Amino acid sequence: MNVAVIGNGAFGKWHVKLLAADSRVEELVATRTTEERARESTAGYNGRVQPFAVANAADMEQLLTEFNPDLVDITAKSMSNSHDIHTEYAALALQHGARVFFEKPAHTATGDGTSVRHVDDLLAYRDGVIGMHLPLSAIHQERYQDTPFMSALHSAAEIAYDWNSTGEGDVIDDLLLHPWSTLPNGIVRGDVQAKKHDTGYEIAFTTTSSVAVRIRLGRGNDTRTVTLDGQCYHVVKGADNVNSFVPVTNGTLGASALDVENPLQQHISAMFATPLFGGDGIRQSQTFLEKAQYKVNELEGKKARETGGYSLGL
């Protein structure tokens, strides 16, 4: 299989590392926005990874025509730090018959439903295979189900997340889908609610299975916890590099050290067959982001732009 990684940067380097070591990958291309940066980013692979410059849709078309990849892995953001090129480049790749895998989110949410329309355009390629990387969604695989945490998660009536990061950027765009992806059923029934606090926002909603969910997002530390009907669990990296949820005792919390490679490897391997997180999940995640962003816009006094009548019932 020939694979092209679009964006060999902060996130893309993990993708390139794993794909370069995969014997199923015959030829591998990794891109940056200039030829010089592309060469620099692939220099340590002794010819295993070919450099290519992709800075716009025309460059992407050229790569697809010349390289004819079987799988296109999109990790890049646009120059304006937007995720909109995920759906733009994905559509081009699907037109060329390639499978598509991209980092979350599928598209930057603006609170007006526009991004869901772009996702729907991708899903219109009925023969297309589309997957999105949401690390913690891997916990829903069968091998992780027989644990005390998963049993408690599936039976909980109230679920509360406190999800923090020392990174930068918009907390809705950057953090919200991580805790949401651990829910057994993340489909939102009706509206969501949003509150503002010192370092971020709190998003609350009820799922279609009547579970009350609260997600508090913030900056300043790397603590990540899940509270299930009053019992708090700390998200940690286990000895086998599998992210797990450990009960908190004595109220003691520490920084969460999440593993990157193990869940990413699971997602990439699945792209050779059936994506771990595919079309329906991608649309649900984008709809949730739009509902949350709509409420955040209200808090911040922002008015969503018109979308030509495309509505999510917001």
Label this structure with key terms.
13 strands, 7-stranded mixed sheet, globular, single chain, Rossmann fold, 6-stranded parallel sheet, 314 residues, Dihydrodipicolinate Reductase, domain 2, alpha/beta, 2 domains, 10 helices
How does this structure look, described?
- The protein is an alpha/beta fold.
- The chain has 2 domains: 2-103, NAD(P)-binding Rossmann-like Domain (Rossmann fold, 3-Layer(aba) Sandwich), CATH 3.40.50.720; 136-258, Dihydrodipicolinate Reductase, domain 2, CATH 3.30.360.
- It is 32% helix and 24% strand.
- It has 10 helices and 13 strands.
- It has helices at residues 12-20, 35-42, 57-67, 84-95, 114-123, 148-155, 171-175, 177-180, 261-270, 279-300, and strands spanning 2-6, 27-32, 49-53, 71-74, 99-103, 130-133, 158-165, 193-197, 200-206, 212-219, 224-228, 231-237, 243-247.
- The strands form 2 sheets. It has a 7-stranded mixed β-sheet with strand order 8-9-10-7-11-12-13. The chain has a 6-stranded parallel β-sheet with strand order 3-2-1-4-5-6, sandwiched between helices.
- A hairpin with a 2-residue loop joins strand 11 (224-228) and strand 12.
- Helix 4 packs parallel to helix 5 (114-123).
- The longest helix is centred in the C-terminal third of the chain and has 22 residues, at 279-300.
- Mean pLDDT is 89; it is low at 305-310.
